[in-house]
Amino acid sequence: WLVPAFLLLIGYLLGSIPFGLLLTKATGAGDLRKIGSGNIGATNVLRTGRKGLAAATLLFDLAKGAAAVLIGDWMIGGGGAMAGAMAFIGHCYPVWLRFAGGKGVATMMGVVTALYWPAGIVFALVWLGTLFGTRWSSVGGMSAAVSAPIAMAVMGRFDIVPVTLALALIVLWRHRANIARLAKGAEPKVGASRG
Ligand code: G3P
């Protein structure tokens, strides 16, 4: 049991690195928690006006999810889903930020892509399509998250439908403030100055 427990811990710790917060602090771009939505993800980094930093946040948050899956699979056969899910939990609920982390979209994309890359492509296409179609980052992220378990099922990867479904439900839960704003017509679009 020691190896699986260690794997869960590694996954969690990797996922809990708040790249958005660290990158914006290190470059003097401001305190993300006090900007826009207060979220630590790439969308909110974009609200600091630093496009490169936002892209780096997206990339690193995605990479930590993918890395956890690869390490998990390398340590135990089939350990990737477990480690990836823990990285996602670490991103959304990091102990360092008193469990107030991000909304999970980028990290989920990394996990999904590393688990089964064709579903990662579907994730990216749905994300970009809805993001550019609606200009709401939250709608893009939630649509992509929900598309993942559907894509896994359609592509016959029933073994990883449960984990991707669980992650998608947590993504929706983490977006509850966005959903409330969308319902009120108050959700800012990407490119708008305030969030
Ligand atoms: O992935 C986060 C994004 O979907 C929403 O971010 O800052 O607009 O709440 P934000």
Condensed summary:
Helix content is 70%, strand content 0%. It has helices at 2-15, 19-26, 42-46, 51-75, 79-92, 105-115, 117-134, 137-154, 161-174, 176-184.
Structural commentary:
It contains ten helices and no strands. The protein is mostly helical and 195 residues long. It is globular, with a radius of gyration of 16 Å. The termini are far apart. The structure holds SN-glycerol-3-phosphate (G3P). SN-glycerol-3-phosphate (G3P) binds at residues 36-37, 39, 41, 43-44, 103, 105, 137-138, 141, 178, 195. SN-glycerol-3-phosphate binds at residues 36-37, 39, 41, 43-44, 103, 105, 137-138, 141, 178, 195.
Topology of helices and strands:
Elements: H1 2-15, H2 19-26, H3 42-46, H4 51-75, H5 79-92, H6 105-115, H7 117-134, H8 137-154, H9 161-174, H10 176-184
Helix pairs in contact: 1-4, 1-5, 2-4, 4-5, 4-6, 5-6, 5-9, 6-7, 6-8, 7-8, 8-9
The structure holds SN-glycerol-3-phosphate.
SN-glycerol-3-phosphate binds at residues 36-37, 39, 41, 43-44, 103, 105, 137-138, 141, 178, 195.
Q: What is the gyration radius calculated from CA atoms?
A: 16 Å
Number of helical segments?
10
Low-confidence stretches: none
Q: Overall pLDDT, averaged? A: 95
Total E-strand runs: 0
Secondary structure class reads mainly alpha
Spell out which ligands are present. Answer: SN-glycerol-3-phosphate
**Main sheet characteristics:** none
Task: Report the β-strand fraction as a percent range.
Answer: under 5%
N to C succession of SSEs: HHHHHHHHHH
What would the principal axes of the Cα set say about the shape?
globular
Distance between the termini: 45 Å
Helix content: 55-70%
